[in-house]
Amino acid sequence: MKLKTLKIAALSLMFASTSILASTTLRVTLQLPMTHSLGENWNQFKNIVEKESNGDLKVIIFPSAQLYKDKQVPEAVGSGAIEAGSAFIGRFAGSVPSVDVVSIPFLFENSDHLKKAVSNGSKMRNIIDARILEETGAKVLWWQAFGRNVYLNNDKAVVAPSDLKGKKIRSYGKIQGWTAQSIGAVPTLMSGSKQFLAYQQGTVDAGMTGLSAVKSRKLFEVMKHVTVTGDSAIEFVAIINNKVFESLSDKNKNIVLTAASKVEKDLRNKVYSNEDSIAKELESKMKVTRLTAEQRAIWKDATSSVTSQFIKNVGKIGQDVVDAASLAK
């Protein structure tokens, strides 16, 4: 179907005044294609929900930003314009600044620490999920792991923070911008889709992204080095309009939440295990550098101001989520 036709179809569903269809059909807006890990994740959720509800619940997924752009998703779902969707967690920072805690560099010591901090029911998650619901009207069903941050460069491998001093670097959020500034780099906020051309044309000297993006966007064709710092998490959130969720029967609510819990764990395990295999695969295309414990310590010290800047900017709840994240070891 053409994009215009899809939008017309979606609007028709949106304003349908009858019935069972509106109460049992969950339309999902997704920025990425169904072949991406987030698309596969939603498809897994769809299959579980439709099977367990014996068809009482239907899930229709609109991938590749056919209906809404990433920045529009929080409002679209919160207002009820569409029932559910996924968005980069940083898109909620305007109304819920505390979500940016996952982007603080080197706050999480390793993948196990990160998994505990972002797991469903953790203290940090409870604070953030409640704030998203309160501020937007969207209920968080699960967090979708996208991967951990890496740095791209052309001149030489990025090993020390000083390697990026004075460099113009692609960033994808406020905290990433602060991180760049803390090491003397100049951040340039840029969407993921614009990276390839920016690196190719030299619009920026270096970049921040995730390993999966290096592979899927073929960034290895325009950048020679990738440094696996794993300094922060890149997270998306799967959300549902809370009024829609509350209108479901208790049985269907339980089906939705149980499915969400399963697909969240499956995706995180898959993404983190795949990062190692992606890094090895990229070794034939570019130079892959992994930080030693000593090198990580230098980076952590160099970027430590970001934590205090976050707390100052967000206030008490900022301190609360940092404390919750730190204690989740």
Characterization of this structure:
There is one protein chain. By secondary structure, the chain is of the alpha/beta class. It has helices at residues 3-14, 20-24, 37-52, 73-79, 111-118, 123-136, 174-182, 195-201, 211-216, 242-247, 250-282, 293-302, 305-314, 316-326; strands at 25-29, 58-62, 84-88, 138-153, 168-171, 186-189, 206-210, 225-228, 233-241, 287-290. Strands 1, 2, 3, 4, 5, 6, 7, 8, 9 and 10 form a 10-stranded mixed sheet that branches. The protein is globular. Mean pLDDT is 91; it is low at 1-22.
Detail the topology: elements first, then pairings:
Layout: H1 3-14, H2 20-24, E1 25-29, H3 37-52, E2 58-62, H4 73-79, E3 84-88, H5 111-118, H6 123-136, E4 138-153, E5 168-171, H7 174-182, E6 186-189, H8 195-201, E7 206-210, H9 211-216, E8 225-228, E9 233-241, H10 242-247, H11 250-282, E10 287-290, H12 293-302, H13 305-314, H14 316-326
Parallel strand pairs: 1-2, 1-3, 5-6, 5-7, 8-10
Antiparallel strand pairs: 3-9, 4-7, 4-8, 4-9
Quickly count the domains. 2
Secondary-structure element order, N to C: HHEHEHEHHEEHEHEHEEHHEHHH
Termini separation (Å)?
48 Å
Global structural class: alpha/beta
